[in-house]
Structure formats: C-alpha cells, structure tokens
Amino acid sequence: MRSSEQTYLDLCETILKDGTKKGDRTGTGTYSLFGYQMRFNLQEGFPLLTTKKVPFRLIASELLWFIKGDTNIRYLLENNNNIWNEWAFENWVNSEDYNGPDMTDFGLRSQKDPEFQQVYQEQMEIFKKKVLTDDEFSDKYGDLGAVYGKQWRDWKTSAGQSIDQLKQVIHSLKNNPHSRRHIVSAWNPEDVPSMALPPCHTLFQFYVADGRLSCQLYQRSGDVFLGVPFNIASYALLTSLIAHECGLETGEFILTLGDAHIYSNHVEQVKKQLSRETRKLPQLIINRDKESIFDFELSDFDIQGYQPHPSIKAPIAV
C-alpha cells in the first residue's frame, strides 16, 4: 500500500501528465481525468498533508457545521472560517438588495485586477459583518440552501417526513455492524437547484471489519489542489469520531473521485508542492470524555506532531 501522502501526490502527477484540458463552469479551465481511487490507512497517522500546510481548524469547524445540520455561514464566520463565503456573497451581490459596486465575475476579476480586488474585499467585509450582526440579513443571504448538513441531518421525504441519515447510520453501525447499508447521501436531486453549490462529496459508506471502521467516499468533482486535501482530512476526522462513538478502531479512508481536476491557474502551485519531500504524518487527539459526535466542539480536537512545509496560496474558482 502506498503511503497516504504519496497516494495523493501520485494523483497530482497523473493529472499533470495525462489529464485532458477542459473548460469548466467557472471559466478558469482545468486539467482533468475521470475515475481515480486513493486509499489512506488511518493507522499510519492522520492524513493531513505535509508537503503544504493544511489548516486543520478550518476543516474541523466545517465538519462540525455539517454535523450540526447547519447551512448558514454565520457559524463558520464565528469560528473565523471563510471557506464558504464566496457562494453566499454571490447570492447577495446578484440580488435586488445589493446596491454597491458591480461584482460581476468577482472571482476571476479579483485575480487579475488588483484595484478591483481591493473593492471586492471591502464589499466582502461589509457582507460578513452583516451576516454576523443582522439576523434578518443572515437568514436571507447567509444561508446556502439545502447543502450537506441539511441532507445529512434533515432529508425530506415525499411523505413530508424527515430522515436524520447521520443518526441512523451510527445506530446501524452499533446494532448491525456488518450491514452493507451504512450509507449517507448528500445528493438529493430535488434539492440540487436550491443549493448554492451542489454537493461535490456526494455519498459515503462505512464498513466494519476486525474491529475497525473504514469509510469510502464517492466525490463527483474534486479540486485536487485546494479542495481534495480538505476532503481527505474531513472524512478521516468524521470516520475517527464515529469510530470513537461506536467503540471501534479506525481502518481506511477510501476516496473515489469522478472528475478529478487541477485548475489551470493552480499548475505552478502543484509543481511546487510536488518538489517537496513528504514528512511524518501527525496524530489526531480526540477528547475521549465526549461520547457522541453531536457533542463535540472545536476545542475537543488537537493535532500533534504536525510539521508541514509552508502553505501554498492559490485562488479559488467560484
């Protein structure tokens, strides 16, 4: 079995070597391949990349946001997490309530025009402050629609009932660990049009063998440089938390990607990362006094022994 981080770096190399050049929804352009699987042995260490610094607290706060069933970015902003801002901001600047400077194609324009970048940042700060302080504004523009947390915790049925998929799968793991139905889906075709961003990580399944819990995620679309490192660590954390609650050890995290792509404006950053040597993976420390995953807070997690190379910045495609 390839080491956890090398498995990811192999994917980067494969896309640069064999990826197909494609246009995309954001107008940025990608190098893409379809169908790729990576396996991460969670006994080897927590799979937080070391060839560039990956911000664990952002990953953990986002996961807690999902677990809570929350879909409003206020909780994220309260925890200094800005990774979903652009999608909520887009809803505001495209609305009749917005009367500021023109923000058309703000994602691409902010990368190319330093003067516009300053204007964009000013408007983003106004937006964030409104989400944090104005309840009515937050309800209207801070909410992203029926995204991940909604589907995990409050899937609406045709009969008007609600399914808490996450609670159900934990109950199933405890009472029928060898079932082949330990599945949570975030892809709800009826709700996709109302989502700020249709789910990229669409479905995950748990598997118990020899007292260890493994998880496989199917991800329809993977931004390999910026997004996938987050996804790897997020689902490794989720697997670790559920294993803790169910009295199991961790096994593997398996990531199966549909469209795995590197954006054209991330290529040089990827090459820089590939030039670096991997380091020893860190260890995840969980507050063992908490029993349920629904009780955890950000202060209940710690990463020990994490000594990565410096972070590598790259623009996000919106």
UniProtKB/TrEMBL annotation:
Pathway: Pyrimidine metabolism; dTTP biosynthesis. GO terms for molecular function: thymidylate synthase activity. DUMP binds at residues 25, 180-181, 220-223, 231, 261-263. InterPro entries: Thymidate_synth/dCMP_Mease, Thymidate_synth/dCMP_Mease_dom, Thymidate_synth/dCMP_Mease_sf, Thymidylate_synthase, Thymidylate_synthase_AS. It catalyses: dUMP + (6R)-5,10-methylene-5,6,7,8-tetrahydrofolate = 7,8-dihydrofolate + dTMP. Residues 6-318 form the Thymidylate synthase/dCMP hydroxymethylase domain. Pfam families: Thymidylat_synt (PF00303). It is found in: Cytoplasm. The keyword Transferase applies. The active site is at 200 (nucleophile), 200. It comes from the Bacteria. Belongs to the thymidylate synthase family. Bacterial-type ThyA subfamily. HAMAP family: Thymidy_synth_bact. Homodimer. This is Thymidylate synthase. It comes from Virgibacillus xinjiangensis.
